[in-house]
Each structure stands twice: as structure tokens, then as C-alpha cells.
Amino acid sequence: METSGSARAADAPGPGTPAASGLPGGGSAGEAATAATAATAATAATAATERRMTRPRACVATGVSAGLAEHLGWPVWIVRTAFIVGSLAAGAGLLLYLWLWALTPWSPGDERPSRSAPVAWIMVSVSVICLVPVWVTQASGPGYVAAVGTWFGPTLAGVVAAVAAGAWATFIDRAESIRGPRHELTIRITATALLVVTVLVFVVVLGQSTTTTKTFGAAFTALAALVGIALVFAPTLIAQWRDLTAERTRRIREEERSEIAAHLHDSVLQTLALIQNRAGATSEVARIARAQERELRDWLFAGDAPPDSDLATDLRDYGGALEIDYPVTFDVVVVGESRERASGELAAAAREAMLNAARHAGGEVSVYVESSPAAVEVFVRDRGPGFALAEVPGDRLGVRQSIIGRMRRAGGTGEVLPGAGGVGVEVRLHYPVERTASENGRG
Fold first, then answer.
1. How far is CA 225 from each of CA 150, 164, 237, 280, rounded to the nearest angstrom?
2. CB under 8 Å to 369, separation ≥6 — which residues?
3. Can you give the residue ranges of every domain in the chain?
4. 251 confidence band (pLDDT: 50, 70, 90)
5. Which of 27, 139, 177, 356 to pair with 279, CA 20 to 30 A apart?
6. Residue in 146, 158, 252 with CA at minimum distance from that of residue 205
7. How far is it, in rounded angstroms, from Cα 234 to Cα 273?
């Protein structure tokens, strides 16, 4: 049927209508411009993210110089020299360094930052360099007291360095595996010893002072050293307070979680179990109820599962996952204590047998795991139509290779037999205990 001229004229774009662009979707030029703008914005955002300054997690002390050098594309020694020279200008370089340290994030990653330089011991050494000459000066002779200007500045610098060493050892070095709590304790004892000696020295100076200025200076310096001792131990008290607060918060959360679990068990979980019993094992409603029940139990008891699951736990979890995708119900029964892990060949063959039962039989499937001193055995029984292994086409290798062949290669045996009374299929897997022990030893 031909199209009329008026229809063709109506379909043609008018003078004020923009022609279709060459985009694959046939979009207009405005849509193309919008897409180009969005792509440009995404590229700019990606570039901005790539240009963001970060500190490397493996660094000398703080990673500020290395991060800034990488960000600017400069050698690291130039950046460090610039910080040192800038610090001579009324401390501007030091302030910039501390500002970048406080605001620059670590580079992305999961590993804990590690530092190669013994920063706490360097601070202790600075404290020794500042305090020991003051001790020697004050002990120059009986009745001699040096001028206040000769000890006041170096003593305060030594006290600050000792306090900084204690804080660094507690807040930063304690979390590192190469140092830890013993390193923190050593630093704290050393810093405290330096400050105690300083207090004793200026107590003696206080008794020998002959002028008001020297007396006031010695008293203030001794008081500063005493405050320094308190500040050396303050980070430890803060860290312990944080640990106690975190433990209390964890305990409160566990109590709330237990109350929620008890309430849900008495209400929602029982309702879901009742729905499954009333709806039947193979119905869609029962499958949804099983999935919701499993997800709820996993959320409630997520912290109770071991990180390296055993065979029974793995088969229960796998059966639960299959129940979501297939009209099947798995009943896993375990007798004895199995040492077989979820990563073993026996677990893989059992999972394959459960998958075949879910695909081809459905309904109720029983999984029986029995562990004895001699072997571990797994029986997977379904009530489906059944099959004979000899009748399975040769190109179907699921049972022959994934179950029987896998068990044979691992040193065990696998059989596929008719079910009880000729109904369904029973898969028998046998794995010697000595093989299980050797596999676990290699892992």
C-alpha cells in the first residue's frame, strides 16, 4: 500500500524542527550535547579523583613528603628539603607539614599503614639531647645554679619531646605488628625516667637558688616536668578508655541483637515455618518463605559461623541456596564429628550430587553425613523418577566426572544406585580418614 504525499509531508521535519542526529539511538542534537556534557563531567571527576593527593601506606614516618612528591611529580628529597628550609622561616614549613599530615588521607587499600623510621625513639633521643646538658650544667659544682635562660628553653623542649614520644608509641606504634605494646611500654618507661631525673635535678636547684628569678624558674621547670610525666601516661589512659567504651558498645549491641533475635524467633521465624508447612515443600510460597527465613537467620546469627566452614556447614548452606532456585527441600543430617573441610573434594562431589537432585528430582532430598574413625561417608537420596547411569548419554559427564571421577581421583569412591524400593536415586560417597587428614595437613 503506497503512502500518500500528505502523510509523507507530515512525517518530514518542519523548518523549526531539528534534523535527527547521527546517534545510534536517533537522538537529537540537544541529546547529543547533553550526553557529551555528561561524559566530560564524568571524565573531569575521574581526573580530579586521580589528582587527589594521598599518603602511601608504606612510608618512613607519616608519608606526607612521599605523597606530596608523587602528587607534584618531584623527587622526594626536594620536598623534604623544602620542608626543612621552610621550617627555618618562623616554623612555616613545620606548620604546613602538620597541616598536610592532618588532612591528607591514606592511599586506598586494606592493609594497615607501616612506618620504617623509629619515630618514638628519635623523639626520645631529642629529649636526651636537650635534657642531659641541663643536668650536667646544674651539677657543675656545689651551690652553683646556672642562669634561667640556659636551662629553661632546652628543658621545655626535652619535656615536649618525651611527651610526644609517649603519645606516638601509644596512638601509632602500638597498632603496628613490628612494634606493639612491648615497644610502647619501653618508650613510656624511658620517657618517664628522663622526666623523673629532671624533676629531681630541679628540686635540688630549687634548694640552692639564691635569687627570686632562679627560684621561680626552677619551680616552674620542675612543675613542667611533673606535668610531662602525667602527659606521658595520659595517652595510655585514653587508649584504655577507648577500648572500654568500644567493648561496652559491643556488649550493648550484642544484648540488643539477642533481644531482637528472640523476638523474631518467637514471631516472624515461626510464621515463616508455618507457611512452609502449610504450603508444601515444592510450592512457590514455600520457596519464598524458606528464602526469607534463611536470610533472616543469616542476618541474626552471622557472627556465629566459623570462617573456615566444615563439610556439614557447607552442605547446609549450599542446600539452602539451591532451595531458592529450585522446588526442592534439603534435610541435612550429620552423625559424628567430621574433619573434612568445605574446600575438599568430598564436599565438591556432594555439592554436585545435591545440584543434580535439585535439577532433576526436586521435592524432598535427604543428605546424610556420617563420620567414623575409618572414613567419612555422604549419602544423597532423592525421590524423583530415577535413572540408570548406563543409560545416560556419553557426552553427559556431570555424574561420571564431577562425582564418580572426582572421588576416584581424590582416593575415595562414588556410586550412583537406585533409591529404596526402586524410587529415586541414591548417591554414595566414601572418603578414607587418612586421606582427609593428609589433605588438611597440606592445606
1. 16, 13, 19, 79
2. 311, 312, 315, 332, 333, 334, 335, 338, 376, 377, 378
3. 58-249, 325-442
4. confident
5. 356
6. 146
7. 55
Q: Distance (Å, rounded) from C-alpha 184 to C-alpha 285? A: 60
Question: Which residue spans within 303-352 are E strands per DSSP?
Answer: 328-335
Query: How many beta carbons lie within 10 A of that of residue 140, not counting itself?
Result: 9
Residue type, 391: E
The DSSP annotation for 37-95 comes to: HHHHHHHHHHHHHHH---B-SEESSSSHHHHHHHHHT--HHHHHHHHHHHHTTTTHHHH
**All cell numbers assigned to 31:** 541529546
Instruction: Specify the pTM.
Output: 0.49
Tens-digit pLDDT profile for residues 385-405: 877 766 666 555 567 777 888
Strand partners, 365: 330
Order the strands of the 413-418 sheet from edge to edge: 328-335, 363-371, 375-381, 425-432, 413-418
| DSSP state string for 14-27 | -TTSPPP-S-TT--
Dihedral angle over CA of 219, 223, 226, 227, nearest 10: -170
